[in-house]
Amino acid sequence: MSGAGAPDFYYREAQRLGYVARSAFKLLQMQKQFKLITPGASVLDLGCAPGAWLQVACQSLGPLKNGGAVVGVDLKKVKVPQLHCDARVQTVCADVMNLMRPQARALSPKGNGFSVILSDMCPPVSGIHTKDAVLSSELGMRALFLAMGRCSITDSSSLVSSEEVMDSSDDDEDGVLKPGGHIIIKLLESEVSQGFRHLCKPRFKKVSWLRPKATRVLDHSLIGRCILVFGAVDQAST
After folding, report:
1. How far is CA 11 from CA 66, 167, 174, 187, in A?
2. Contact by Cβ (8 Å): 72, 85
3. Which InterPro entries does the protein's record reference (predicted)?
4. I want to staple 175 with a disulfide (CB 3.0 to 4.6 A). Which of 59, 96, 149, 237 is the partner?
């Protein structure tokens, strides 16, 4: 729904097409533009509730015979939507901030890692923009840390404290994103989020910023501070 509480176009379309949330259209736009999820891909969806991105991800895998897998992780227990999902989709109830890379990798097919990582995680918005931006960046850095390993945290002190995203007990250096893979991280737009471009540019072949058309402006004062989707396309070889 829109900020005023009235159903908008994307809300109505989601209901008509069987998506559990309007956010499905954000991933649909990114998928159309970048072709991130291909038949047979393995997808990790961080912050998967209520399941709309699970639906789009599964659709993007193509027919069941193509194989592939979609794993959703969320603090909440998420039921796999009946529409647009099949046996290739599963969900796990876990705190991403405490999820170790060996645990995340074990969720992938044959433990080989994921070809696509989606992070739709966003903190509860307090209305204090600086606070919300930092919390959003912490979640984004955690997703990047899981995907890329310790190399993703190098020179990141200007973004968030590494203590917020790293755990000394996680000694596995490698990330769970396969070489040549893709990652999408949702961030609250801010000066802090701009640092992600500089952090990720040398680590990926291409870094693209996108504000999907289905992004919702909750309040006029938030224009320019809306959710920004960060897409890293094609992991650079290391």
Report:
1. 30, 39, 39, 22
2. no
3. RNA_methyltr_RlmE, RNA_MeTrfase_FtsJ_dom, rRNA-MeTfrase_E, SAM-dependent_MTases_sf
4. 149
